[in-house]
Amino acid sequence: MRKTVIAAFMVLTTSGLGVLAQSSDPITQRQNLMKNNQEQVRALTGMARGQVPFNAATAQAAFQRIAQNAQQIPALFPAGSQQGKTAALPAIWERKADFDAHAAKLEQDAKAVQASITDQASLQAAIQRVGQNCGGCHEPYRRKES
């Protein structure tokens, strides 16, 4: 069991780090980071829906990865990085302090829910709490795909 937990943690942690190190372009870096967040959420929702066995340690590691990613978000939106193939709206740079506060709240909430995950029901509540941050930021700051 311990080896499984350690292996799951290593996969979740290193999957995000390798992706971010691939490019010095902030647009590519942030797109990779967001894809990694999506992978973490997909793994969490699979557990929450009973599609894969519940594992508290794996869920906690996924939320830890989301928190680490959230910490990196503000730096991946430097001035001038709105040019190029991106769904980021100009509002990010117009209201940068608010945008950065959304990232800080995501990090805070992802850290806060880690200790509360003990079963499938608590995982569902954690996903809902953290997921509100995603939607709360995507609405005002991300271009909707057509």
Number of strands: 0
| Cα radius of gyration in angstroms | 16 Å
SS content category: mainly alpha
Please summarize the sheet with the most strands. none
Q: Give the helix tally.
A: 6
Describe this structure in words.
By secondary structure, the chain is mainly alpha-helical. It is built from six helices and no strands. The protein has helices at 2-20, 26-48, 56-72, 91-94, 96-114, 120-141. The radius of gyration is 16 Å and the shape is elongated. Mean pLDDT is 88; it is low at 1-7 and 15-21.
Summarize the SSE layout with pairings:
Elements: H1 2-20, H2 26-48, H3 56-72, H4 91-94, H5 96-114, H6 120-141
Helix pairs in contact: 1-2, 1-3, 2-3, 2-6, 3-5, 5-6
